[in-house]
Amino acid sequence: MARPIAFEVPPYDARETLRKRLEAAPVEHAEALLESYELLEQLHETGTLRVLTGALAAGNQILETAVDAARSAEAVRATRNAILLGKMLASINPEVLEGIVAAVSETLGSHQKPVIEPPGLLALLSHFRRKELRRSVALINRFLENLGNQIKLQGEFADREAHTSPPTGEKRRS
Questions:
Q1: How large is the average pLDDT for residues 8-21?
Q2: What are the structural domain ranges in the chain?
């Protein structure tokens, strides 16, 4: 008759297994391990590990606070304004913007407050003989005309909305 084979499972020690794996790690990884220990020590000394641990512990609360802040009317307006400003900057020819930056730097960019005496009326009128000034005034005038048109369009749109939407508390009849 066959005898049963005795099989005993040796006790498993997770720490011992990890220690053996660390000892058997290739020499090429030793430098990376030492650097990671140094990084952990620096994070510990500066308190960053404590902050990260607290952030992980309060994860849902931080997320809820951020979501509540992002849902506010101010955050929505700020996001929309940032997108519009980005579109506006993207639409400007870089050479034109570079010229504007140079003109602002030449006019206001000195370290000291520029001393500009107000010109007399005749001196001011004589400036209008220069092409550069007339070109700049024409550009500003075109901008102001476009701004006025946009303000008018926004006002007309608001008037239309006020006439087509039902008063508060009433339902629109179909």
A1: 83
A2: 126-162
Record the pTM.
0.45
Cα of 16 vs its chain's centroid, Å: 48
Predicted local confidence at residue 174, as pLDDT? 41
Please tell me the distance from the alpha carbon of residue 100 to that of residue 106, in angstroms, as a whole number.
10
Q: Which two tokens stand for residue 122?
A: 């005749």
Say if residues 119 and 127 touch (Cβ distance below 8 Å).
Answer: yes
Number of residues that make up the chain: 174
> pLDDT tens digit string along 157-171?
788 887 776 655 555
Query: How far apart are the C-alpha atoms of 104 and 107, rounded to whole Å?
Result: 5
CA distance 53 to 68: 23
Contact 66, 75 (CB under 8 A): no
**Is 29 or 150 the better-scoring residue by pLDDT?**
150
What H or E segment, with its residue span, contains residue 127? helix 121-127
